[in-house]
Description:
By secondary structure, the protein is α/β, with parallel strands linked by helices. It folds into four domains: 21-183, no CATH class; 267-345, Threonyl-tRNA Synthetase, Chain A, domain 2 (2-Layer Sandwich), CATH 3.30.980.40; 371-653, Rossmann fold (3-Layer(aba) Sandwich), CATH 3.40.50; 658-733, Orthogonal Bundle (Arc Repressor Mutant, subunit A), CATH 1.10.10. Helix content is 51%, strand content 10%. It starts with a helix and ends in a 10-residue tail after the last helix.
Amino acid sequence: MGKKKKTSGGFRLPVLSFFSVFNRLAVALPERARRMAVSVLFIAVAVIFVFAFFDKAGTAGNLLLQGTEFLLGRVRFLVPGILLLGAFVLWGMRKYNMGVVFAMLGLFVSGMSGVLGSLIRFQNKQAFDAAGLIGGGLSWLAFSAFGFWVSEVLFSAAIAVCGVVLWQLLPHEKMEEGGFAQATQEKIRKIFEPKLRMEEVETVPTVKDGSTDEEEEEEKEGKAKKKGKTPAPKAKPLFAASMGDYKAPGIELLDPQKGTTADAGDVKTYSAIIKKTLQNFDIPVEVSEVNVGPAVAQYAFKPAEGIKLSRITALQNDLALALAAHPIRIEAPIPGRALVGVEIPNKVRAVVGIRELFEAKQFQDSTAPLLLALGKDVSGAPIFADLAKMPHLLVAGATGSGKTIGLNNIIISLIYRNPPSNLRLILVDPKRVEFPVYNDLPHMLTPVILDTQRTVNALKWLLKEMDRRFQLFSEVRVRDIGSYHALQKENQKKISVSSEGEEMEEVPYIVAVLDELADLMAVRGKEIEGMIVRLAQMARAVGIHLVLATQRPSVEVITGLIKANITSRVAFQVASQIDSRTILDMAGAEKLLGRGDMLFVSSEFQKPRRIQGAYISDKEVKKIVETIAQENESFDRKQIEENNTGQSAMESLESRADLDGEDDPLYEEAKRLVLETRKASASFLQRRLKLGYARAARLLDILEEKGIVGPSDGAKPREVYGNATSDSVEGIKEEGDWETPKL
């Protein structure tokens, strides 16, 4: 008996294994792939039938034909056409289940067999010989119950229903545009087009990948084509460039993503482990869904009533031990839902290509000129953010966390959507190796800034430009740059129609990207902080935006004033929880995975949103910049710079290595401090203004040149002339109680 069981089990095991593998493969395939496979199978069987009719299909073909003749009789000659019809419908349909097609085809065959069987019975002949087992049986039942005429009506109605349903499933838009051949070619092109589709990640029915449903996507494309709208092959600039010869970059410059798809492992096993581990601590939960993203899989579960969330978050290390995964992150609760999420790193991470985001419908259809393509969230949905609404961004992350690639994504997103007449860039790179590749861009307001002094000068110029734009907006009575651009378009229409009115000044957006803020703050901290805070408070309305980045998010770099005025922040992986709290005001960034894994906080989200950042290589960046520079060689950059952005004024400001005393933002404060305290020394100014010795000594020399303090006299303190109520040196001179010392 033991041997029989062993033999029986050994015989059944390969068969069961084959069907289980086949079943898993069918479930894992996306709906579209299954439809295509069945369509090809239908076509192959139809060809076999045709060969069998001419006795060219061998023994197996003859057996297939004999079996069909036994079931359907003469209707067997219609089987190849019916199979081709089914293949055509499956190939082109969008949102219906394949079971509907199978049911309609079966009903169609049955109706034809029934019509033939009833007609033969009416002629008093043997229906089973001509209509087969199915037709003869159906005709016998209908003929016995209703008679000939009603039977024919019923079978004809069944055929008509099948025709109507199958007609509704056909791709009408494709047929109208170019017939079946064109539709087939387009379908084949879409199948082999190298796109990273997140539905391939799905392994079990309960898993949600968050990507756009294939059928819904195709239905939207069909509606757009029906209305005469075709998807754009590349992202077009939203504002028409004032120079007609400027050529925007094409989407083909970005490499199509060919990376591996995400693999979350056995999600059923992980769900069971999470549930069992929490139950061991008397926390009953029910797993609701699993969202597989590019970097992590989020297991969402609903705790029982009366369970405190703090009890669940306190078990983070216990869950990590049970799952043998590190690091894990618990989001309690998931914003907007009555669920708790446990995020577990995928066994295989997917790469999110920036081209995939640029081709997304949200990015193509958006009218926001400063829309940034950030990446994909934990459910695989693309995430975009409008810099104009932020309106400034703070970025922090340790070395190797993907911060520089994130900054490249921001810059490339901006130049893909805007011509130079609508966007100008100021890039600061103290490391001298990250941004110089952008020097050839016509969008650049000035060559990449590499030293601290020029950074200070650039920030000063931004403050002056901000004040100038406020004055301009007040003259034309608009509140912000969006209203100004709308008024400018109306004015251009009036000029083109009636030649009345004056040409309005071009006012582009200005985005300043400062990398390695820590290096700048270490040298000119107090001064740079003051200018950044003033720009953050006021510059949004006039179209000036800041992107600040640092790999050392300490309180000395990201001060309280900067954090208070820049609420939108991106945190890549950081070294410690303290750094995470500095940038986000909460823990979490220290548990990220690196390589673009980030937490994004803005005014739109109450809690940080986890995103896998998009990847763009240095090769792609270089290719984009070189293409823009080559295709726009005739672009009159100098004229645009002088007319639109005051480039000449900025260059003259940057060329001065030593600032005039009254141009120094701390000059007035130093003068007031000296007049109030009656003390004048470099060490005193260092302590009170938190300056370096060189700058404090220079301020003291300027005060001496202006006649506010006397010359140095050995160990004696300098004399201070005038008092704190005097508005200027000239006002002090009018008092007549002192003479300007001769130096």
